[in-house]
Structure formats: C-alpha cells, structure tokens
Amino acid sequence: MKRLSLIVLALCICILNGCSFNSTRLNNEADKAEAQKIVNQFYDHIKANEPKACLDLFGSKFYAVTSKEKLLEILAACQRKLGPLENTAIPTVNRV
C-alpha cells in the first residue's frame, strides 16, 4: 500500500510539473513583438479608412461573442465620434 501511495504521489508531481500548473508566464519578448505587429496592422487599416481589412486580425474566440457586423459598427461609431486616428503610440505597461 505504501508503495502504491508513493507511485501515485510521484505521478501527481510529474503531471503538475509537466503542465506548468504551478507556474506563471511572464511577458515573453516574442509574444510582445507579435502583438505589436498585429496592433500596427490594425492601426494602419484604421488610418487608411479600411475597417473591413481589420476583420482578419480578430480570432474565432472574439467572433464567438461579437459578430463581424457589430465590430464594423463599433469601428464606424468610433470614427464618427472621435474623428480620424491621429496617434498610435501605445503606452508601456508591464503586468505580471
């Protein structure tokens, strides 16, 4: 019985360690660079008044809760209310 308990304990430790259950992921530089690239594409489309081109930048999880038509409505409302995009600077925020 003691041997079985040790095997179960060892197996649990391997599983928890293998799936990174007990660790956090910090801001990876490669992830930041990829995100910046997508944000720049989004802003370029908005500046060029091509909101339909932005639709490809959003994923299926976004479209599960918001339709493409609703996104285009939101972008048009922002354009009407705020006017043309003037500044695309993103403030530096480091969150853990």
**What is the approximate shape?**
elongated
**What is the typical, i.e. mean, pLDDT?**
80
Measure the end-to-end span. Answer: 43 Å
Q: What oligomeric state is this?
A: single chain
Order of helices and strands: HHHH
**Major β-sheet profile:** none
If you compute it from the alpha carbons, what radius of gyration comes out, rounded to the nearest whole angstrom?
22 Å
Poorly predicted runs of 5 or more residues: none
% residues in beta strands:
under 5%
Q: What's the tally of helices?
A: 4
**Portion of residues within helices:** 55-70%
List keywords for this structure.
4 helices, mainly alpha, 96 residues
What does the model show?
- The protein has 96 residues and is mostly helical.
- The protein has a domain at 30-89.
- The chain is built from four helices and no strands.
- It starts with a helix and ends in a 14-residue tail after the last helix.
